[in-house]
Input
Amino acid sequence: MDLMLKFHHSAPLVTVTNDNAPDGHSNATRVILESVAQKEGVLSSKLPLDGLECPAADATDVNPFLCKPETASDADPVKTFHIKPRSLLCAVTPPLLQPLEETCNV
Output
């Protein structure tokens, strides 16, 4: 099964690496997605999602995500930074389906 993530502007994300801890970009930092762009020369495909034709790309076909800290405010200068997309393999164990019980009202 191919898994898919749907991203949109201002989507909340959580970092999973300690790329720059002194600047607050460490594991479990909450950030806001500013933009995602495809690498040059990569053609996007279209997938039907929720009744709309949406552009789709593999993680290896996009540039690093531009993000800002969730705690940024109008008083503080917003420092954006990049998060590199990557593909991961994982094992998922779905819950067992329970049989439906029929009931009768007499």
